[in-house]
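Pilot study result, target chain (200 residues):
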Amino acid sequence: MQAQEKEKQSLKDLLYSGKLKKDSSGVIRNTDDLSKKIDTGSKKETQPGETSVPAANAQQNAVISKTNTNTNTLTTGVDKVTTTADSAAIVAVPANTIPAKTNTKLWKEYTDSLVKTLNDEVLRSKQIKKNTYYLMVDYEIEPDGKVTITNVTSTPENAFLAAQVRQIMDSTPLSLNPVTDSSNQPKKVKRKQQFTITKE
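Predicted structure:
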């Protein structure tokens, strides 16, 4: 039994070392005389690394696969960054292109809010009769855009309503865009603005 195992091992060594002669049948049996099958003309010594070539190739392939996987991951990461940057750019563009509100628009928003407050808190008073009131506001725009109310008048005349409007406007100050002169420097200017309110 041990002799057979030894012969098998010897056959395996010869086969992998390249010492066996090429045989047209290509079949080697345990009972064959191996000495006839050995190719003594071409001596080929087994190199330590040769038997591990398939393993080395497999390892190299594994490294390549790993590299490719990492490359794909990196590419995906870059794509994500690019996508995020693009999204940020898309969001930022409208913010930069939105024009500043004009003083007319700021006044409109302010007086709409003022009328709502007057309707809720002031027009309930018996001192204000049912009517449509035209309120004229005299004001100054400071160089920094702050608004100072200088006078409020009502048509038809109603001192109580005018006083209430003045008080509310003083307690909720308005800021407008500064007005500039010919040299583009902000300056103090006087303005008037009118709005209406109706008590039904």
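One observation from the pilot: The first strand starts at residue 131 and ends at 141. A full batch analysis is planned for the follow-on phase.
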